[in-house]
Amino acid sequence: RITEEKRMVDTKKEQERDELHRAIWAIADELRGAVDGWDFKNYVLGTMFYRYISENLCNYINSGEIDAGNTDFDFAKMPDEDAEEAREGLVEEKGFFILPSELFCNVRANAANDENLNETLERVFRHIEESAKGSEAESDFAGLFDDYDVNSNKLGSTVAKRNEKLVKLLNGVGEMNLGDVKDHSIDAFGDAYEYLMTMYASNAGKSGGEFFTPADVSELLTRLGTIGKTEINKVYDPACGSGSLLLKAEKILGKDAIRNGFYGQEINITTYNLCRINIINMFLHDVGFDKFDIACEDTLLSPQHWDDEPFELIVSNPPYSIKWAGDENPLLINDPRFAPAGVLAPKSKADMAFIMHSLSWLASNGTAAIVCFPGIMYRGGAEQKIRKYLVDNNYVDCVIQLPSNLFFGTSIATCIMVMKKNKADNKTLFIDATSECVKVTNNNKLTPENINRIVDVFAKREEVEHFAHLASYEEVSGNDYNLSVSTYVEAEDTREKIDIVKLNAEIKEIVAREQVLRDEIDKLSLIHI
User: Fold this and answer.
1) What DSSP assignment string belongs to 440-475?
2) pLDDT tens digits, residue range 30-83?
3) Before 310, cis peptide (omega within 30)?
4) pTM of the full predicted structure?
């Protein structure tokens, strides 16, 4: 019965997801040719967020009034001047405030007749950001709508054309079936973001893999990092992008299981703002403001969480092989994050710098699960010296080779490095998960069964022929600290096996039969003569 109920719930979720995708596609169809895909993503998510916080605030206020016996109360119909009296208290409780006239539902209702809709939205967004000033949420709301440019020529060459597109955008998001406001889920926003990435990441002129970690990979990373744990102190992502990995940690462990909060840093301002929108969406689901600290800076050169480390869980999908200062900056070799290895990651490939940064900030009882470019596992030079440091000090717990084509915008077969500081043995587990996937449209995807198999073998640290090998320190060091999975896990030979003895017998029989036929032909020829 439980299985049947779960199947029905999953089916309902899938139907709701499909409906959401169709709604987003319909909006894209309306704006086709007007807004570049990458910008379109910001407009749709920004409008969804505006609707979310409007309905969340309304529901919060209305529920309180109804519980107090005022059953006909509706904040959306309240005069602005009356609502002002509640501003201070609501900012303290919710972190922000929106006047009734500036709620999504009311702006949308008047949008088609508002000749200055662009100015209206600009004013509303500015007021929402300003409402958080002086509260715990001030830094989280500051500049949050900067990427929602209502005056952009991309929306139209004239104010009228821009407003026409904005009306369609408001109506499209307003007609999305998100259910009762109390049921608005973090998943819906995440699903919308993931779908938009699938629509646009591959042709956005940039690597989608740098901005977004698909939900299946996020789940795998988080589960690898929390084996045997029901709670952790803090979760951290040094290259948090849109925040998908932080959100996944909350979803898998639960908000109360992450005692002291979520921390992340992101260098790209647009992606940073998307992350903050995702994070604030979690605020709306009763995760406190004080539990988040997301910074916008270069993690390698200007890390913003010195006072917050160490972290019990670190999950990350850093950008692959980007350039960084490296040995051009003489101060970096003395940085406590990089100094222990005695060498810096190459200037042209910062991958190992992210690894060393994460290791440095990892708690003694923690786990770091990081998506890596496969080249760092076997290349020589400085990267080999860093691998030697990691292996000699017994920090590498496991290396997992993933299938190709898991990430939007890149077909690279990435891998995962799992690091710990408190390993129970001095061995390294290698898992070949290249076949653990199913094909979905143009990409591969990890199914729940795929994830379970990888996690199960990881937890048991067991040998599985053609799938997992537990290598000793001597074996790894004997291979010049090569950490490529293919060096340790022998791929299964799927070629058809041929029985040579049987084949020779068959050939011998064919030759004999051929001779008989030739003899018969020769006899017929003599008779004919």
Assistant:
1) ETTEEE--HHHHHHHHHHHHHT--BTTTEEEE-HHH
2) 776 545 555 777 788 889 889 988 998 999 999 999 999 998 999 999 999 999
3) yes
4) 0.82
